[in-house]
User: Fold these one by one.
Assistant:
Number 1:
Amino acid sequence: MPEPGADAAAAAAEPGPGLPERGHRPAGRTVSHQPLSPERRGHVRSASQGTQLPGPSILKDPERAGTAARRGHARAFSHGQIGMDGLDDVQRASSRTEFTLPPGHVSRERSGRGATGRQRHGSRADSLFRGHSRQASRSESVYTLRQTQQSSSIFDYLCFWKKKVAEEARLRVIVPNHTVPPDTPAKQHPNAGFLDNYVRTTKYTLLSFLPKNLFEQFHRFANLYFLFIVLLNWVPEISAFGKEVAMLPLVFVMGVTAIKDLFEDRRRYLSDRRVNTSTCRVYDRDSGHYVQRLWREVRVGDMVHLSCDELIPADLLLLHCSDSQDVCYIDTCNLDGETNLKQRRVVRGLEGKHETFHASKFFGTVECNPPTTKLYRFFGSVIHQSSQERVPVTSENLVLREGVLKNTDYVEGIVVYAGHETKALLNNGGPRYKRSKLERQMNMEVIYCVIILLLLCFTGATGSGLWLAGFADTVPFFPYSYNSLNPPLEGFITFWTFVIILQVMIPVSLYVTLEIIKLMQVYHIHNDLELYDGTTNKRTECRALNITEELGQVQYLFSDKTGTLTENKMVFRQCTIGGIDYSHDAVMEGSGKFEKPSFVLNRRLQDELNQMDIQLSVVNHTGELLFTPHAQRVRDFFLLMACCNTVVVAKHPHKDKLSSSGTTLLDDSADESSHQVSVPATTPEDSVLEDAGDAPDFVRTPKKWRRKLAIGKADWLTLPLSLPRKQSRSNTPTPRELRPIFEAESPDEMALVEAAYKYNVKLLRRTATHMVVSLPAEGLVEFEILHVLPFDSDRKRMSVILRHVPTSQIVVYTKGADSSMLPVVRTTSDYQSQEILYRTQQQLNVSSRRGLRVLVLAKKCLTEEEYQHWLTAHREAEALLHSRESKLQQSYAAMEDRMELLGCTGIEDRLQDGVPETLSALRSAGIVVWVLTGDKQETAINIAYSCRLFSQDMEVIKINARSKNAAERTVTFYLDQLNSEGAESAAGGGGGGGSWKRRPATPASLWSADTASTAERSGKKALVVDGKTLTYFLDARSQLQVPFLRLTGYCSAVLCCRTTPLQKAYIVRIVKNQLGALTMAVGDGANDVSMIQTADVGVGISGQEGTQAVMASDFALARFRYLQRLLLVHGHWCYDRLARMVLYFLYKNATFVFVIFWYQLYCGFSGAVMVDQIYLSLFNLMFTSLPPFAMGIYDQDCPAELLMAQPHLYNQGRLSQVYRPHSFWVNMADALYQSVIIFFFAVHAYHDSSVDIWEFGTTVVVICLVTMLAHASIEIKSWTWIHAASIVLSLVSFFVFALVYNAVCWAFPSLAGSSWVMQMAMSTPTMYLVATLAAVAACLPRLVTRSLQQTLRPSAVVRASLRRRRAEESHQMAELRSAPWSSSTSLSSVSVVRTSEYSGAAERLEQNGMPTVA
């Protein structure tokens, strides 16, 4: 039976069956207490695993209900858990998927008929503020599963003039559409107020694009700044440019952004069109059967028919199911990321109507709650028209849009929520936004630019006032007298004039450039064939578009083990039964994409199972048969493997009796496939196994023997005298046998069930209450499932309580981790039992050292009285509102006690290809790698060695403390020992450890930028910590965080075992906050979401545990090995490119501003500008915009092959060596120097000449352009045609524009001063000479500095590139010397050398099926 999981848990937290939401009064019902406000209502922890809170009893006790409502959600700390103070975004909830919720997240419930009655097909009201791609609905649902209602803010009360939206009725009433008369007007239709199924996730329409986009863009401070500049220019006393010209920068920036937004919105539109044009089958009243319709045509109240594996088009209430138990299963992986199937049931009152149900005969009315973001919150009722019976419905009866129907031939349901009212669309939060480290540093530099701008404006205003105050009578060139001037007022006005003319100092266009560059970087990462996995047909997906450069700055890497480093494809390798070990060899089955690991049956164990019937002996005249003790253990061992799980079973692929167009299929295959294989719920006395005759391997249990059978007490089992045919002992299915289809929640369960099946212990059927298992020597055996005690991270156990149907014997089967199972095993003084326990413990240690995942299996037999006594106490615990979780844990512990040990299993989880090489490369790159796993210590250490996290020459430090004092003593001991070793090495010339030791033990000093020496010094040490010890280290009250982090600073690898999801997240948080390091978290499962969201960069692996980690991540990879290229190549490139691009952008803006400012020395600080206003507005926006793009997208300081071969080159980004805090001021000093050269070279070139101000200004602009392009040429690392084109096009486009502009500007009176200026300037050699000399003089210091730096102190990247170049040259010369020199061979020998570096790439392209170019 599949684990109910979060859906049942959340459903149980809702009002009981038939009850309205607390505080709401449906028609015809009264409650005796006052409703509770949402603000006072806290979260009562919901019943988990299919249990429900009592319904009416809550309402009968107002005081109890009020107390429960005021209580918040509290979760006691247990083993492996820590105080989560400060970890606001990591919360624990009942569902496996609810590890994290964003701070301040609120429930977006639809609140009104006014909202639903808005313009049809309109987008949601809040879509204006939310970007979206269709995949975003899948990526954000994990963060919105549990939310609270948003209270009214003071802003809502202040804006009293706003129209209040009428609240929708707390219970919406839905009438089946086929019952509404066809002549009913559309506005009077009972379901007219609800949205249809048309989905529009675009932000804009043709009419709303302009106003909405402008409204969004003016929310940005940079655009508001430019708007402020434009408005200033409209003031006559302040204006410096023409009003139209002043708008050019703003129009350009916003125009580029609008085009980008339009492009993104078009992608959303195409995605919406694909969804809306999908088809489904809807009941048509006129034709009397189901017809094919588009999703967008589905309405609330429609009857929809779904087949197995069909995507659900809307939220449906389940009315009919092909299953005889009226149960279907839903895969909600697209919604919450969970891979376990959710069980859904037909509405009560409609069960069992498999032959009589027809859509046209359903006349009931549905009352349910309004739409909400909470996936598993649904309550209401169905009112049957015939009997007027009100039947309660819950989330157990609701199937959600974007889910997939599984393990069921077909279902039929009525649409209750459609389109944007479905839970999938309400949970569409759009793409996330993170601010990178480089961007935060850049924002600080922009603040410095603002300060510089204010200083320049203040200097200019002061100079203007002082210059005017220096005249006694009249002011030269002023048309009015001095007496009419007010120097302070003129200085104030001049201040704002300088703000206008020096506006370029604020690099507003830098943000647009940065967005476009990052978008192109993401495009190249996504299309890198080296990151494409042909097996899964998946590429690397970049979900966060604005943190690409952080891939090159990772300092700490936190990785999960299972599914991340390993394949998460489990192979059964070892089992120990009764102290006897049975090992299995691994093999590969299938080929190509269908290849999967398997195992070879153990011959000894196979013979024991096949000889079971020979071991039977008759003990008395009644004919009862007995197993030997060891055979009994073997039987129970494999029965436990087959039954103690949440596996869903189907005997054949499901097919529907309707085609996709709604027509009935009449062929035999369709008729046969529509039969359901589930076992009906039968009583123990009258159960009949219908298919027993169809399977040659099984026999029936004769009815006359059923009352005589009894499962033996502890060791013995009675069996019927009827023995199976010989075929039952065959481990190979006969051709007539149909192999069941298993759908498991986890690969571990699948491996155990498959292993039991191969040993002929076959789980054939499973329902919510019964299961059928085929056992050797017994045939088909039916069990009643009394209770399932689910697995949780605290108990680390799972149990199932079964009743043998023929004998009514009750047995508890339990499996779990050895640390939790061995303490509950019954210990006796019997030598044989002690020997079995000892050998099992030995085998557990051996398996752990082999890296196997171990489980301990045990059982316990119960009498009917014992079970009923436990059941009574368990139901009382389930009904509690306070301390419910702790009582349930006590109830579980009472059942899982004094167990009989059966044995243990060992499952191998193989490493993914390339994991050892990847981890070795990342550690060589200086990245500190932490592996956080829930496995036991021995298993984790063995995996650490095999994946090269640990090396054989490492000293492994193990800390396993069971108290705070022990943890403190241990960490202090190791710190003292390491500090003394560091002091000795410092005395011997090392110096590294001593200097680190002398740092004060404060959080700020725990991280140093120069960590390379620390890594080299500590490369021989590794740390292993278990989850219990982490509890003490991570607790802020213990004051052990700083010593623990200091200890990890001596280690290049850290392994944390037995960790919980919350511990993973908290480890990442303290490293990020305490050390100030940039962190990356890698995981593949739902338990890794907290860690992924807490880290600076989250990476999800597309593994076997669903898509939740991928949905929560910033980058999604198909395999862990791709992380090496993603970080070492793309990360290195992205950081280096963006860092140099930002510095260049800030430099060129500042240079241009300083040049303009120097002219004020010659015009009395009047705010006059010698540069044409068009050039001034477009210089940085257009004429110098191409080199930053070429530098930021395509520049390479090092080829990919060299970066992969020498991981230490990653230190350049990891240590932020390109963009240091002083880099900005160095660039400002260079800009100041170059501005002086540019301006005064031009001044002296035209000294005492008749050139006018505009020709002088044009020459200055040309000098600035040539100088900045020369500066870019120095900064570019790899010259390609793209870089050359950006330089040439920038220069050519300026001259072409200037010539055209100066030729036509005479037609505009405000621009007539520049008429024919460029033509005049180009006709004289002065402009060319001064531009060349000034550019050389301005760039010479930078060129000399770069040359000296690369010669005397070259960076690691430069040294590696030089070594590679010399090696290639020497190799080429050797090839030329070795080959006989002739005209026929010289070219061929050179060609061999030239093409060698590309041969590997060509081979990779051919392997991926891509054409290669000769």
Number 2:
Amino acid sequence: MGEWQRIFVQNLTVPPHNQRRCHPPPRDSKAFQCILKQVEGNIMKQRAPDNTSDVEFQLRLSLFDVAYHHFFGKTWRSATRPLKVVPGQPPTVVFNETVYFHTSLDHPSIILVVEVVASVRRQDGTHQDLSCGFGILRLFDSKSEPTNLDLRDKGLSLYHGTPRALLHPLLQEPVEKNAHLTMVDGSRLQCALQPHPLLETVDHLLPENTLVSSLQRIPGVLAAQEEDVFQKPRLMKTVTWYLEKLSIHLYPSLEKFEEELLDLLMSDQSNSALHGTTLTVQERRLHIGAHNGFCFVQPPQVVVVVPETEVARGHFGSLHRKPGASNKLSSEGQALVLRSRIHLTEMVRHPAFGVVFQLEYIFSAASGVEGKTSATSLTMPAYMHSIRWAVWNPSPDVSSSDVILPLQGGARHNPSHVLVYKTPPASMSSEEVKQVESGTIQFHFSTGSDEGLRTATKPLSNIKAELPLSKNPPTSSPRSPPSPRLLASAQDYSQGPGLSISQLSVSPENRASKPPLPPSNRSVLSCSSEVQERAHEDSPQGGISHLEYDLSYSAPVQESSSNDQLQELPFTPIHMPIMALGAHSGSSSTALTRASLARLRASGCPEILDCNKEPAQVVDPAEPVNVDPQREEADLLQSNEIVFQFLAFTRATQDGTTSAMWSKTIYFTFQFYRFPPVTTPRLQLVKADGFGTVPSGASSHILVQMNQDGTPNLGSPGLKVKYMVDPSSLKPGEQRWFIRYVAEHSLQIDAWDGDSLLLVGSAAVKLKHLLRQGRTAVQVHHDLEVVTMEYKQDAPVMSGELLRPGCVKPIGIHAVMKGRLHLSLANVGHLSEQRLRKSSSLPPSRSRIVASHDGTSGFRGGSLLSINAHSSGNVCQAQKLADVDSELAAMLFSRLREVSTAFQHTHREASITRRRKLERMLSVRRRESQEGDGQKRASFIMGRHEDRIQHSRDLQIIEAYRERIKAESIAGMLSQAITTHHTLYAMFGTTEFFEFALKNPYSVQHTVTIEIDNPELSVIVDSREWKHFKELTKTITPLEEDMFHLHENLTPQVYLRPKETVHIPFKYQAFTTEHGAMKQQGPTELTFSDCKKETAAPWKSGGMQTKHIKVSFTAHGSSKPIAVLSVDVEFQPHVIDQTFRFYHPELTFLKKSIRLPPWHTFPGAPAGVPGGEPEMYVRCSDPNVICETKKMGPGEPQDIFLKVAGGPSPQIKRFFVAIYTDPWLAVPTQIWQFYLHSLQRVDVGCMTGQLTRLSLVLRGTQAIRKVKAYSSQPQELKVDPEGVFILPANGVQDLHVGIRPQRPGSQFIYLNLVDVEYHQLVSSWLVCVSCRQPLISKAFEIVLPPGGGKGSNKRITYTNPYPTRRMYFLHTNRPDLLQFKEDSFEIGRGETYTIGLRFAPSRSAGEEEILIYINDREDKNEETFCVKVTYQ
């Protein structure tokens, strides 16, 4: 084994986690120096109790990723050291070693684990390794900056166990404070961890995450005798090596080898989409790089090698392979050649330095005829596979030689860590390939010559002058590859040769580590599991990076960072942004006409009365509203009864939609202010003829509540939802928030089909007309448009539409009006009911200053066993210990409880006669005892004696129990004496700020450490952030600069003078809510009694439990706190400004871009901000949702990018996004609510007018269900069975679907399977229809008058072209404008049939193109006629 092979095998490492390697950050690597001094403590003495000479100790260092529970890199082991025991001092093991490494994973979760291992020598001479404990060193702080820890005096704490405990899923961040880790008392590791920038000069010779000691030798680093070579590392002198006349021989011939390779790839893909296509060798590459046994010194150079015969012909060629093709190949041997010279400027004369060659093939599935690549082949995906590799270790004293190396392949480690093709087994090979080798590579090597030096230093102008001298100059076509001579000339300078044009067509996602041709036959691609695990460990050496070299000339000496990293170009996402309409926008609303109001009153809709039983004043929604907050606050009727009254719904006219397709029920969902979301019961739509002035063809319906059995409730129509907003149920000062919400916000209402559970549409109504402005009651009637938004995936948008002055249009949105909702809003004033509320139910004052209780004011009294001591008074009533402690009661009264249970059981069964008998028996025994029976009296005395003994035992148990808990109870009571309680009422996204007045109770100064057991509550250490919150909350307290000192684990510390009081700023910031996955929402079947709805206080949230956070203020050097702050966090709901709903295929990622409205339209935005528009910040309630925004420049719109992982169908994922304009994320300007509906996706390709059939698999639940299928486009999608049918439990059944689209293009159709008894969604599908229009064989043109009328009758003829009798069916894309006299006809061969047409009158003038489809018996399109109708 050579020197290079030995170093390469010894330094194989485990790569980081896949998530860390998927998107490598373009950051520089950080170098570290770890000094290990000594370990001291009794834990090592426990491993060597008898004979310390048989035990030696060792340190082991490993890198660990806490976030993904993954060890990576390679464990470093120190030399074993003996244990030194000195009387009067703890046992010590001295190491005095230094370890160096560098990493680019600058994340706070990356730690260095130090393990102390005892190596025990057994009697048979073998060694056993035992773990003594381990410690944790943080490499980076929370800001991803390298840490600088000096623990040579204090020492690093050690934990019991082995580092494998870190793999347990319960060990989450912060690991040091996890309850499952136990610290070793009295044992410390004296060490230091600090950045070492000098190591960066040799980081190209040492791979990332590889730990080396100070005495380890790295090829390329100048070694020194008995010195730390990495303290100030120096590089060895580099030389330039030249490789030329390079050729690769694959046996028995190149064509035979490549043909068999393609055959094996095609056999692996016989059942894939590539079956029947041509697989082509598009390009052959060779990677050449210098390797020192650890890593590639520089990224390998990439050159293109071509067959020797094609170089002679002067053009490239590709080998094509089609299934079943057989060509007569020549047995003449060929070679892959490279005519250019390779310059390796980074070589060092060292035995471990070698040159690595890797042969790589690029395959593509050509779409041309007879295996020829079509004109669009450059856009076809290309796949890369490594074929062979070799390594060459030259002798240091050889300056020139001819080299022949054998190529290697198969399942073995290689420097690039990729899958490598191996020789197929003999059973799959032809007779010519069975006895051949893996191939060879030949080249001429030299260390320098006059010609080589002149060539290497030739200026660029001379090289450019030689290019036209080629005999066959290349064409200028960008799709044709360059000629071999041009490629060779262009590569004969610099260390980064140019790449061929085919590299521009290779998709970056198609990498060798993720081949799109998965091998089903193990003979084609093979690699050991370790090689697969280590694929792409080194980037870019270990992976395939396209366009990683500049095609222009560059100097021979370049910085590695400029060669390694790709430069990001300005990129516009493919998905067009959706325009957010803002909270102030509402649906198109008009006032109800007098006729409509009269019709509603005649139907029995109840009136809204004020507190004096008089009708509320009606407000015109078109009138402007002058908001006067002072007038609202001065109103005597402070209690507001908000009423939403749903009255009627008018359906919109749609092409081809009949009344039978509409549902008979509807329900609504909405959320008002911070009250819980509301889902109304199903409301039946009752036809109301002549309702108002509705458009022709539209139908209006009164909304009627339904009984439990599904019959309509004949009481008053409509539905009322009431909210009582009383100051007693609001937080102090929240009345102004409510007035501002009503004045500036709109309420979004979603309408749902009560039968199919499909979304009908959404409407938004402005709430500003609910402000009473001193009036007793107000009401406003709205006629709202219910609109559904269809989000187009590939909607083309011209830049002119976006940049047109004064025009802001939603991007990628197609709005369709589904109907109009008739809604009444009212606000009825009442006197406040504060007298009915207890003061304890209200939140405390919103004071931002929390005064501490230091315990110096005296003991407030209370029981030592009382848990809630802070609520105790000065007097505590005495209680039995067994009554307040369940553990003691179990020990004392277990026997008594058994007796009591038996007595109660007897007492329940006793009758009056039995009681009388027992009384007689007791009286007889009493008389016998009085007569002086000596024997019975003796037994009675013995019983009393046993009771006294048992009582004495109980007293002893009580005394022992009191002594055991006395210290703990007293300590708990003393802790309560210095504990201050504070309650926060937190909302999602809103930061709660307060200051805690901390007093030093001692007469000496102290450095106090602040420890918090919940990361959501933190100390504000930045004075700028502190100042921002003080100005925001108008808190008048002193502000100090540089007040806190961050300790080693980022714990803040503050210095206190004797008896000094300082204000510690805290902030509570949480972005978590009770969202997540939920089932498809449906209507509730609970009806509101007397049309009322009980509403709780909006600041009370039953969704999330109260959080308890403990903050300890501990003096430095002491374990006892000087003050304790107990924070109770009560969660309350938040306001939702806008709601988005997306329907997406299940188990896929949704990627959306939402454009923010102009920032000045946000509620409360200032009129002018110096410096232009503020920067936007976003936070999401779901940590698994990627949400970000980027500053695009002054005057440019801002977009929010979302990436959400969908769940299984029919699950709904709900989350919130908060938008901020301040960098401290104090108060969100907007909160958006998102619903992601996951549906099963079905892709259908069809033709307009032609029926396409498919089947869907239905899987039953655990119970038998009566179900029915509903479609969002019932005129285009039909199902069989069409009505209600039985879905058996745990059974499988087919649902037949027929799709007949009316228009070409792409569209989404939603299909729901609903339980008709419980109105639950069983399954849901997203049918993605891609439709094309058939060829039009005949065209006609007629002119018709517009408006009303009787229509027009026309005729056209059709001749049967077949020699047999045929049946034909007629269809049209506009059934509302054209009807057939007969929908089908049957004619014989050659006969002509006259088709009768009746054109319905159009309501307006214009032109319409009506298609007539003539289909056969199987509903396949035979002919298509086009009739152009002009209405004038």
